[in-house]
Amino acid sequence: MIEVVSAERCIACDACIDVCPTHVFDRGADGVPVLARRSDCQTCFMCEAYCPVDALFVAPRTEALPPEDPQREESYLIEHGLLGSYRSELGWGGGRLGARFAIGPELP
């Protein structure tokens, strides 16, 4: 089930919103996807696979993790290399955080 959307990493590209077959996400006012219908998540990993900046984590369970589970904490996921790990296992790459700077105009 989808557990984490990293607002810090997200580039508001809407890829996760577009690929989710059960429409779990809504676009937030700031562009960052909001888990609007989390209970509809089918744990298909599409959102995590298509996220170009590894901003999502889907736990390989069909039910939500308990609130105290460390896999609900972004810092834990980063420390253990779990953000984007599914994408990496697919062979689609990983660690594309630098991509946020390649999209859009060059900053001064």
Automatic annotation (TrEMBL):
The record's listing under SUPFAM superfamilies reads:
4Fe-4S ferredoxins (SSF54862)
| Keywords attached to this entry | 4Fe-4S, Iron, Iron-sulfur, Metal-binding
Which residue ranges does the record assign to the 4Fe-4S ferredoxin-type domain? 1-30, 31-61
Gene3D superfamilies cross-referenced by the UniProt entry: 3.30.70.20
- Does the keyword field hold Iron-sulfur? yes
Q: Does the keyword Oxidoreductase apply?
A: no
Molecular function in Gene Ontology: 4 iron, 4 sulfur cluster binding; metal ion binding
Please give the Pfam families that the UniProt record associates with this protein: Fer4_10 (PF13237)
- Its name, as the record gives it, is Ferredoxin family protein
